[in-house]
Specification:
80% of the residues lie in helices and 0% in strands. By secondary structure, the protein is mostly helical. It has a single domain, classed as Arp2/3 complex 21 kDa subunit ARPC3.
Length: 172
């Protein structure tokens, strides 16, 4: 890996961490609906950009480093759920890119990634609690929120792509 790529990935990790911290400071979007921990997933926009324009291995590395940060800042359960959600999200996106040979929209990939992220988190939470009804009860809600929030993050990615491209090319 060359120095420019390492520096760019360092900037991307900084964006991921700042977006994750900012999002965690926001109140729940729908406080009247369970689960109240549902978030848009703004930091996943950066991970998706890395998948699409830098590399698959680098995106996996970003998901792992984000989970390590979650572990250090919010504890082992947050770290494990972040790791499972992040890796499953990246796996879903990479798989769909391979299946559709890059002929799939960013929004569709973002929705798949959001659903994968929610699925990974639910699996870990259910396993930790040893209560699989948790998964059964929350999965429909998390599926719907994955579609909604995945669409939002896909649109956000489209808006930020030019900014990230400039930074990657050294012009920003």
């Amino acid at each position: 890996m060359n120095t420019k790529k390492i520096a760019f990935l360092g900037l991307m990790l900084a964006f991921i961490l700042v977006l994750a911290m900012l999002e965690n400071m926001l109140p729940p979007l729908f406080p009247m609906l369970p689960p109240q921990f549902s978030r848009i997933g703004l930091s996943n926009v950066v991970v998706m950009y890395v998948v699409f324009f830098v590399g698959k291995k680098e995106a996996i590395m970003m998901a792992v480093l984000k989970a390590v940060f979650g572990f250090l800042m919010r504890g082992p359960i947050a770290g494990l759920t972040s790791l499972a959600g992040g890796l499953l999200s990246v796996f879903f996106i990479i798989s769909l890119l391979w299946i559709f040979r890059h002929k799939i929209s960013y929004i569709a990939l973002s929705v798949a990634g959001a659903i994968g992220h929610n699925l990974g988190q639910l699996i870990i939470a259910s396993a930790i609690l040893d209560y699989w009804n948790f998964f059964v009860v929350l999965f429909p809600y998390m599926l719907i929120s994955g579609v909604i929030f995945g669409t939002i993050t896909g649109i956000f990615l489209k808006v930020l792509m030019t900014v990230f491209d400039k930074i990657q090319k050294g012009g920003g």
